[in-house]
From TrEMBL:
Gene3D superfamilies the UniProt entry points to: NADP-dependent oxidoreductase domain (3.20.20.100)
Domain NADP-dependent oxidoreductase: 16-315
SUPFAM superfamilies, alphabetized: NAD(P)-linked oxidoreductase
Identification of the protein by name: Aldo/keto reductase
Coiled-coil regions, chain positions: none
PANTHER family: D-THREO-ALDOSE 1-DEHYDROGENASE (PTHR43312), NADP-DEPENDENT OXIDOREDUCTASE DOMAIN-CONTAINING PROTEIN (PTHR43312:SF1)
Domain of life where this protein originates: Bacteria
Source species: Sulfobacillus thermotolerans
Amino acid sequence: MQYRPLGTTGLEVSALSFGTWAIGGSWGSVEDEQAREGIARAIELGVNFFDTADVYGNGRSEQLLGDMTHHMADRIAIATKFGRSGDWQDPANYQEPAIRAFCEASLRRLQRDTIDLYQIHCPPTWVIERGDVFAILDQLQQEGKIRAYGVSVETVDEGLLALQYPGVKALQVIFNLFRQKPLDQLFPQAQAQNVGILARVPLASGLLTGKFRVDHQFAADDHRAFNKNGEYFNVGETFAGIPFETGVALAHQLQWIAQGRETMARAALRWVIDSPGVTCAIPGFKSAKQVEDNLAALAVPSFTEEERAQLQQFYQEAVAPTIRGRY
């Protein structure tokens, strides 16, 4: 396992870490025991960082992580998020009483005294522009409730806004072979300020595994069914904002990346963690087997400069025009 500094937080995190949206909910069913086995296997293989949120399964993923890691606070770091409970556009969600309540609830579920990285969960742009929320997070940090804070953003412009606040030590962004825009301006600026980058949706909701056919049917409780067109939240969170059928066809054109790298998924993850500015990728998992498969990306060859240039051209010409929503 390779470990990297997460900006100036003092945390050294595994280059391939894990997100826990899938074990919380909205990715189809997963049993608690299956989720626990996945967490345990990740830790066994050297993963020391997990990303979660209070709304993943209404606290379920936080509770699972708390059950598995509360006695490992000195060596397993947890990032969680707040702001999406209730009405995420309500200004009250970003004021001190609500944020304190969110924080205390997450601490209870995680069974910890301190949250290693506390992130605002894809807030409305005006929340970042106003900036009042950061003074509240500064106070929680001074009290020892949180070690560091960051922002999970939907767009490059929101990320650049967040970088204007010196207390922001990490950004979480959608970044994968189908979403390369952060490479142009956001990542260089974050690097210049020594701000960590967590790359979420690194497999474009599974499109970059190359396993789907256009007739694939997702379970009704899987966001890839109920949010495929952005019906419930930002469309970019599902298939990176690309229409599913289009994404399947685009992924088919990328099958060559698996040559010498075993699978498309491992190749796609390798590309993400090798990208300048990325601290770690945070793919999801629903089983120990998926954890093992994802971590195998660390052992496959990196892309050459010529291959990366080819992939950038493919993104600009074939992929970018198909992405829906702000990004």
